[in-house]
Design brief:
This protein is an alpha+beta fold. The protein is 39% helix and 20% strand. Bound molecules: adenosine-3',5'-cyclic-monophosphate.
Length: 141
């Protein structure tokens, strides 16, 4: 089915100047960028986005990292978009990510792993709603 998923190019990848290279991975795989913007998260918004991780030992580091610089947030659309984007990203820990994935090619540490992608269609709907209103999403399915 055609799905939408939510994606972040994190501060480390923006800092490495590889936004375009990462967007190319999405497009070459058949995903369409149907919404996008650059934002600098507040700690409150980062905490809201990562609410499910609030009790984890790395939560404060995660919020600190995600607020350390601007990020790109985007909605990707296409066949099986949630799983396809997770395949493109590779494992959460770049050290374990398969060759040729975004995290293998652009990241070194689990705490600074270049990209985020929704883990389910339900998460995608929630995450998209945190960053985009309906009139900012230009579906091309
Ligand atoms: P993400 O997909 O954005 O969702 C939660 C994030 O927590 C994850 O990517 C990692 O970047 C981060 N994370 C997971 N494990 C650790 C860890 N042990 N230390 C720091 N950050 C982590």
């Amino acid at each position: 089915a055609i799905e939408q998923t939510f994606s972040i190019v994190k501060p480390d990848a923006v800092g490495k100047n590889v936004i375009g290279e990462i967007y190319s991975r999405f497009e070459k795989a058949g995903l369409k960028i149907v919404a996008a913007k650059m934002v600098h998260l507040s700690a409150d918004k980062a905490g809201e986005f990562y609410a499910e991780h609030r009790e984890r030992p790395f939560f404060n580091d995660l919020v600190g990292f995600m607020t350390s610089g601007p990020i790109m947030v985007q909605v990707l659309e296409g066949e099986n978009a949630v799983a396809l984007n997770r395949d493109l990203m590779g494992a959460t820990n770049p050290k374990e990510a398969a060759a040729g994935t975004i995290r293998a090619d652009f990241a070194e540490e689990v705490s600074a792993n270049a990209v985020h992608g929704s883990d389910s269609p339900e998460s995608a709907r929630r995450e998209i709603g945190i960053f985009f209103s309906a009139d900012e999403i230009f579906s091309r399915s």
